[in-house]
Amino acid sequence: MRHFVSHFLFRHLLFRGLLLTFMVAVAARGDGDQQKAPIMLIGAHLEGRLDVDPQSGYNRLIRRIMPIDQSLAVYQRYPLVRALRKFEQTQRSCLFPASISASVALTSLKPDELFESAMVDFVSSHILTRKGQPMINSKEDVFGRTIAVQRGVGYTALMADSDRFNIIRTPDDKTALRMLEAGRVDGMYGWFPDTFIIAENNGIQLPDFNPDYILFETTTHVVCKTGTGAEPFVDHVNMRIRALRESGELQRILGPFARLENK
């Protein structure tokens, strides 16, 4: 009886040992497969810059910076909110256009979990007005006015005083530009150069703004997660951005409104 019990225990322990070894091997293989998967570059849809038009500036840029070898990286564009969620959930992923500061503000990711490529361009948000009308030079100039703000867009710099001016929410920049052109609002929340590109593409009068009164500003980059093996892809992106910048092609790709320096 004692021999039978000892033999049974031996076989039981042997089976558990073999099962544990198999599970560790499967997990290790899964991790290895994950590390071999191509980096996913996630494009965040931006009207006029990264949209359905293949000739929009950022679309043209992505075609120039993506490697031919798709085993290194693949690209997919998503609506903004979905792009942010996809970036959070996908281990081997990068986001464009983005910056570390903007990514931290819009996702649950921490600064030390991210690294970014060389700068692409510089963007900033302002209160835009019609040509020939007084420009907004300070937040006090907004008081008592009616401002168009796109749905889902925050305006943190003015939030504390939001009871001192009127807000009309619009579905997109184009609608806000039409309202501004028609004199239905006194100003609109907009980005430079994005809103100007949208105006030009749709035959709308270009708005005006004070470049020194800035609500938010950032540089744009490809932002990737650390520890996921994205470094070779970012090295490739940096090489392409540097070559395009030095040749003057980057300005031609992004258009005349794009600012390639911080100011």
Please tell me about this protein's structure.
With 263 residues, the chain is of the alpha/beta class. The protein folds into two domains: 37-121 and 220-254, 3-Layer(aba) Sandwich (D-Maltodextrin-Binding Protein, domain 2); 124-217, D-Maltodextrin-Binding Protein, domain 2, CATH 3.40.190.10. Helix content is 40%, strand content 20%. It is built from nine helices and ten strands. The chain has helices at residues 2-36, 57-65, 80-89, 100-106, 156-159, 173-182, 194-201, 231-247, 249-254; strands spanning 39-44, 73-78, 93-98, 114-116, 122-128, 146-150, 166-170, 187-192, 216-219, 221-225. It has a five-stranded mixed sheet with strand order 2-1-3-10-4. The chain has a five-stranded mixed sheet with strand order 7-6-8-5-9. β6, α5 (156-159) and β7 form a beta-alpha-beta unit. The longest helix is centred in the first third of the chain and has 35 residues, at 2-36. The radius of gyration is 25 Å and the shape is globular. It starts with a helix and ends in a 9-residue tail after the last helix.
